Amino acid sequence: MKKIYGSASEALDGVLREGMLIAAGGFGLCGIPELLLQAIKDAGTKDLTFASNNAGVDDFGIGILLQTRQVKKMISSYVGENAEFMRQYLSGELELEFNPQGTLAERMRAGGCGIPGFYTKTGVGTVIAEGKEHKDFGGETYILEEGIFADLSIVKAWKADETGNLIFRKTARNFNPPAAMCGRVCVAEVEEIVPLGSLDPDGIHLPGIYVHRLIQGTHEKRIEQRTVRQKETA
Amino acid sequence: MKKIYGSASEALDGVLREGMLIAAGGFGLCGIPELLLQAIKDAGTKDLTFASNNAGVDDFGIGILLQTRQVKKMISSYVGENAEFMRQYLSGELELEFNPQGTLAERMRAGGCGIPGFYTKTGVGTVIAEGKEHKDFGGETYILEEGIFADLSIVKAWKADETGNLIFRKTARNFNPPAAMCGRVCVAEVEEIVPLGSLDPDGIHLPGIYVHRLIQGTHEKRIEQRTVRQKETA
Amino acid sequence: MPWNRNEMAARAAEELEDGMYVNLGIGIPTLVANYVGDKDITLQSENGMLGMGPFPFEGEEDADLINAGKQTITELRRTSYFDSATSFGMIRGGKIAAAILGAMEVAENGDLANWMIPGKLVKGMGGAMDLVAGVGRVIVVMDHTNKHGDSKVLRECTLPLTGKGVVDRIITNLGVLDVVDGGLKIVECADGVTEEVLRAATDATIV
Amino acid sequence: MPWNRNEMAARAAEELEDGMYVNLGIGIPTLVANYVGDKDITLQSENGMLGMGPFPFEGEEDADLINAGKQTITELRRTSYFDSATSFGMIRGGKIAAAILGAMEVAENGDLANWMIPGKLVKGMGGAMDLVAGVGRVIVVMDHTNKHGDSKVLRECTLPLTGKGVVDRIITNLGVLDVVDGGLKIVECADGVTEEVLRAATDATIV
């Protein structure tokens, strides 16, 4: 049962279709499945809905699929830093469903864990709560949020073994595990596929059961806000 | 802000009270907070409710608190291997709330994650579903299960640093992370407290934010079912 | 001649396909692992492990490494460990392709009873209710009749249920039955067992 | 003389106690980290990190290590990383003792608006709604008035809310106010600011 594919395009062969819901990992430009996004652009699949915390920037991340008008709808918590996004949104070409960031992450995990709905205090009394079921627990009001069940997950990890066990690096983990969990099919791109047995079984961040297809590639890993401090001189 | 205490009894000082709800980690006798359970026995606190997958055996684990009649109620998925438990239960001295194992684990995580209720398919159409709210999602029926919000969590880990970052070993992880999450106060016992900075930040299983008090001790780590295979002779 | 325990396990192993993640229950299901042959099967242990290995050699037992039956086991090169909430998340979320479980009773509508007998000591359902509710395919392996010779394959379960309409396939010492619309369908008879014998031993609608 | 940005941050830092886990928002709240002194404070970055360190030295930036403002940062010896679901689990679950956030408007009942202005470009709430709903104590740090001189502390918010009744304390350039029954209570005035000046600048009930 080979999970390793030769390229992002090969790994996506047969799983892309118009109008599908794709859950994508990443926060800002950190830990995004950049190779798979490029392959989706190359495939030209249209009318996609993305559940993704952000929408990338104009020329990187999901932004490249906005330029080609492949995205119909975004389910996100924050879509700043993207002029093309705003243009399409304001002109009505692009649908947008704002989710609070934690609600989005939990909705992905819930979908992956067979939980179709859960209650949260987040957003009670705000526009987010409109039209949602309200329910009291212990005298406090919560709203019902639904699990996300995606057709496809695309995620980026640091290392994998051939069975798809994944480890992430620092804050590049972010939405990748919950996004991976909630897809019917999950394709992962990694910086390095290591020999079976070289990952610590106690240190696996995402077990291979969640990963159906796998590619290794070279990542640009662009930095959005380069902030530094000066070395103090003695 | 010191989290490290000198002994299990010191770590529990001021947090035990009669009638409280305690979430305990462990599966069978694997990864149980054996030192803290012994200290609760020594403290003699009564009318305790335990959310714990199992109830130990007669002379180890939660079993030692059954012998001293300190337990009023168990919330568990499996309570075999314990004659004293059965005696107290059948005589009406002990209350028992069965939860499916996955429902119990998720109820703990939910409590720790501020989720007062979630829907699951587990138990629909069984005695477990009686009296619980039913709700349809996508044409399928689910039942509402509530988060567990414990007064105290007691867990056992392998290693900790002084800030309470924990790592577990192999299948001794089990219920420990979700149990730790759902307590208002969490006390952890570990085999070794290692110097700050010696745990890999990418490999922390349970961040120190969940751990309020910490002890190091020597663990018996009893094996319940010793099963082996024979070495093939050449 | 009906199948013995090992033959039932071997037949159950035929249900498993390359690449599957599988949960095996206690008893005959545990034996299934001996018959997977060259197939690339990953076993889940619901207490928090994927890639369960065989029992350890004597002296190599590890108290921190047990399966859901609380037996000492070993790890493999593919093994990963995780907590119980994550473990049942993958079960509930349908990530486990198949569970092979024992049963006390199975009904023709797929109802399963395998966790309690009223009036007897109740040990608990453990992870059984989660497994039957969540995994992709539930295969029951059990003797066709109980020790009194009564069918364990029934029109309706008499015991408290573990899950409603959850069983896909039943493998017994007499043969293999599928749960289909309107009742059970005979897929296969054990060697030397005729369809008549199987029907006669089964207290359920066979379509 | 009203407090400047650094003085507001320094005042906000007084809210933090030894051992606290804290989330700092973007803007003035970020400066609070400079004033915690010897106190043992652990900063959370909601994209999946506890124990956030300072900005890296030039040339040591790591694309895999950013904060919730997408800035490059560093780790500490106490650092742990986790996924976004876990991160917001700890926020929603009340494990973070305090959040210090900026705001566009705060009302006397604790309502907070800090994520959108209708008719203007909407970027999204990010993690703000989760933070104000979940953390133990919400402290707002902001200028008392907007650039037109109008009070940002109001009887009722006019902008879409981030959270309802969520703010505990407001620290502005003019002083410190607590949300209490019936309105706001003056805790402290900035150096050289009189209670009369603070009242006059505040378009809300002061009790």
From TrEMBL, chains A, B:
Keywords: Transferase. Coiled coil: none annotated. GO terms for molecular function: CoA-transferase activity. InterPro entries: 3-oxoacid_CoA-transf_A, CoA_trans_fam_I. SMART domains: CoA_trans. Pfam families: CoA_trans (PF01144). This is CoA transferase subunit A. It comes from Roseobacter insulae.
TrEMBL record, chains C, D:
The keyword Transferase applies. Belongs to the 3-oxoacid CoA-transferase subunit B family. This is 3-oxoacid CoA-transferase subunit B. The keyword Mitochondrion does not apply. GO terms for molecular function: CoA-transferase activity. It comes from the Bacteria. Coiled coil: none annotated. Transmembrane segments: none annotated. Keywords: Transferase.
